[in-house]
């Protein structure tokens, strides 16, 4: 397996290694979901390799070098590539429009640790996803946001527990249910509000640019 790139500005650099893991979630920022199904490799990947191809021994593209895990920011034997199946989905959009339209619900999601704490305190009765409605799709669907009242106390909004009948227990579950859908797709979101389950129709909107 070969990784090609321009680490530290050294163009046409090729490193070799093995696939040391599959199905890894590559973290992005707290605002965006992780890149799913990443390929982990021990081929040397350093700053500048991102965007270069990851090839198998027959020279076939299997992924695109994307990220590393390293305290120093340099090679530590743990690098990641976006799988070629994801590339096949994204490249046609880039060619036709110059950007990638990622589907979203129009909410800012609370960390799962917060939801787990609320469950342990008895504030929430089920696993799910809480969020602050930012406007757009969630607002139009009638999903109630979490907010602070006049006294500064947090009023917890709707708890999302399912999408199209498929259970949502955490933010990774939510991202997983959305990743194979497109902007404009209609989904049904099941929420708990005042101990009652409600099914709300929602049309997915485009996430803001990651830039």
Summarize the structure.
The chain has 211 residues and is of the alpha+beta class. The protein is built from four helices and 17 strands. It has helices at residues 84-97, 112-120, 137-141, 171-179, and strands at residues 2-5, 13-16, 19-26, 35-41, 53-55, 61-68, 79-83, 103-104, 107-109, 131-133, 147-148, 154-155, 159-163, 166-167, 186-193, 196-203, 205-206.
Task: Provide an overview of this structure.
The protein has 211 residues and is an alpha+beta fold. The protein folds into two domains: 2-97, Thrombin, subunit H (Beta Barrel), CATH 2.40.10.10; 103-206, Pdz3 Domain. Helices cover 18% and strands 36% of the residues. It contains four helices and 17 strands. Strands 2-1-5-6-7-4-3 form a seven-stranded antiparallel beta sheet. Strands 14-13-15-16 form a four-stranded antiparallel beta sheet. The protein has a two-stranded antiparallel sheet with strand order 8-17. The radius of gyration is 20 Å and the shape is elongated.
Enumerate the spans where pLDDT stays under 50 for 5 or more consecutive residues. Answer: none
- CATH topology of the largest domain: the name is Pdz3 Domain
Secondary structure category = alpha+beta
State the CATH architecture of the largest domain: Roll
- How much helix is in the residues? 10-25%
Taken in chain order, the helices and strands follow as EEEEEEEHEEHEHEEEEHEEE
What would you call the shape? elongated
Q: Please, what is the CATH homologous superfamily of the largest domain?
A: PDZ domain
Distance between the termini: 31 Å
Mean of the pLDDT scores? 85
How would you characterize the largest beta sheet?
7 strands, antiparallel
Sheet with most strands: strand arrangement? 2-1-5-6-7-4-3
Overall domain count: 2
Proportion of β residues?
Answer: 35-45%
Count of runs of 4 or more consecutive helical residues: 4
The tally of strands reads 17
Radius of gyration of CA atoms, rounded to a whole number: 20 Å
CATH class of the largest domain: Mainly Beta
């Amino acid at each position: 397996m070969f990784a090609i790139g321009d680490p530290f500005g050294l163009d046409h650099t090729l490193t070799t290694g093995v696939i040391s893991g599959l199905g890894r979630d590559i973290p992005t920022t707290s605002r965006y979901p992780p890149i799913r199904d990443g390929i982990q490799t021990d081929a040397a990947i350093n700053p500048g390799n991102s965007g270069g191809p990851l090839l198998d021994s027959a020279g076939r593209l299997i992924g695109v070098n994307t990220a590393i895990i390293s305290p120093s920011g340099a090679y530590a034997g743990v690098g990641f590539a976006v799988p070629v199946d994801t590339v096949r989905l994204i490249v046609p959009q880039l060619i036709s429009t110059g950007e990638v339209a990622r589907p979203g619900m129009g909410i800012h999601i609370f960390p799962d640790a917060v939801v787990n704490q609320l469950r342990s305190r008895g504030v929430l009765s089920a696993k799910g996803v809480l969020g602050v409605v930012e406007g757009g799709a969630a607002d139009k669907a009638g999903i109630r946001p979490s907010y602070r009242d006049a006294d500064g106390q947090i009023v917890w909004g709707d708890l999302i527990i399912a999408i199209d009948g498929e259970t949502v227990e955490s933010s990774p579950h939510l991202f997983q249910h959305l990743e194979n859908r497109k902007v404009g797709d209609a989904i049904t979101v099941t929420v708990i509000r005042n101990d009652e389950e409600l099914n709300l129709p929602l049309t997915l909107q485009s996430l803001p640019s990651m830039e």
